[in-house]
Description:
By secondary structure, this protein is an all-alpha fold.
Amino acid sequence: MKSRAISFGRPEKKKEYYTRLTDTVRQYLDGEFAIPAMEQTSSETMQALVNCKEVEAKERERIAEMLTTADYVKFAKFTPLQDENSVIWMPLTNLSITLTNG
């Protein structure tokens, strides 16, 4: 994944972005760890990650933060600051590196 600044014109673009982002992470979790994240709520996914010993606590926290922010954007019409959008990318980039190298 490549870190980049993200700018949203319309609110539906923001929601679409976070939906695609969480879908990608959920598919990754399903493929790598057999966590059926696409069929789970964010809370259920996080509980499954707690039970997954291959993912370090720090990475679980980063995923939890991303899922929580995405839920706020998608369901509570939350508008993250520009910096928050960039902060979301870094954990995902680091997660990919950690799991690939680990």
